[in-house]
Amino acid sequence: MKLPALSLHHHATPFLHKTTALPVSRSSNAPFSVRMSLRDDGPSIAIVGVTGAVGQEFLSVLSDRDFPYRSLKLLASKRSAGKSLNYENRDYTVEELTDNSFDGVDIALFSAGGSISKKFGPIAADKGTIVVDNSSAFRMHEGVPLVIPEVNPEAMDGIKLASGKGALIANPNCSTIICLMAATPLHRRAKVTRMVVSTYQAASGAGAAAMEELEQQTREVLEGKEPTCYIFSQQYAFNLFSHNAPVLSNGYNEEEMKLVKETRKIWNNNDVKVTATCIRVPVMRAHAESVNLQFETPLDEDVAREILSNAPGVVVIDDRAANNFPTPLEVSNKDDVAVGRIRQDVSQEGNYGLDIFVCGDQIRKGAALNAVQIAELLL
Ligand SMILES: NC(=O)c1ccc[n+]([C@@H]2O[C@H](COP(=O)([O-])OP(=O)(O)OC[C@H]3O[C@@H](n4cnc5c(N)ncnc54)[C@H](OP(=O)(O)O)[C@@H]3O)[C@@H](O)[C@H]2O)c1
Which of 18, 145, 236, 309 has the greatest CB tally within 10 Å of its CB? Predict the structure, then answer.
């Protein structure tokens, strides 16, 4: 089955100017001669997990942003070794990931799951490669920066390609990135003391196979057949359920605790109170989150709207009259995180609370784009 929109090339387009034609993509359709990204002074790059949902998006984002590279190595499991992939009008052969894959590699973008990262991340870093890892393997490790470039770029101060030293840098969980893209500009103004997050998470967050399963189940249910449950243990099409991450002894699942712990690390603030409920919804791509914020100092909703309108990587869609607010469909394949439903929390005295609704493409800003932005900070 052809996966929806995984290999398309898109740009961040201003959501509020829908009548404007999409800019012509600087994608692989461009004549090779005009591309400046393949160049002798660029870093050598490896992509680990290139055949997956995030891996494919890495290629799209690198191309869209004209990321410079001297050479490109495409790595996946033995199953994919030998497959041919085209990137910027050149054919590459996918190689099996091995201990020797990182010889001469400057930057490796990892998205092949936690166990692969745990095994091969340190091997790569020991060889002088700077690893940007999408899994949860190193996120909470002391000394490993956990970075959202718009939020805490300072966490990776001193890590530069020019140093020639290997390092590990972690990409936060997709729900954390999308939430903090919107919450941080408000936190900077009024200091968040407590945050309550409820997520509505798409199939794409669970990888390419989960997207296929949602499509297949939808077809099966409409045809009156029993839905095939392979990735998830229960029916996903026309249903929703608690996130499939393992449930911990405190009753939270791992996805929820990632939001709690990662927020504290990224904001460098162990006092902030965070609680979350994570739900998988039958949306193909892009997560939505309802976020309730409590502040140390008052923050008016109009000021909050103004702050968010000026925040990098954020677009406000908040038209009460037209009942038009962010949707996962509208942010799919887009770089920006959309925020709306910006309103004073009536359950709190004074202007100490706000509710917002956030949508973001978690394969893009929640994974591949954020990682490539981290890589840009290395140059
Ligand atoms: N999807 C998201 O939105 C998202 C967001 C943030 C972080 N992440 C993280 O990114 C990682 C990948 O997610 P995904 O959604 O892209 O999953 P996916 O679509 O299932 O892709 C998994 C990738 O890992 C490769 N792989 C599996 N076993 C391997 C092995 N033994 N050696 C080398 N490569 C191997 C696969 O290669 P084959 O094709 O050869 O099997 C494939 O390229 C996970 O750690 C996930 O938690 C995902």
Answer: 236
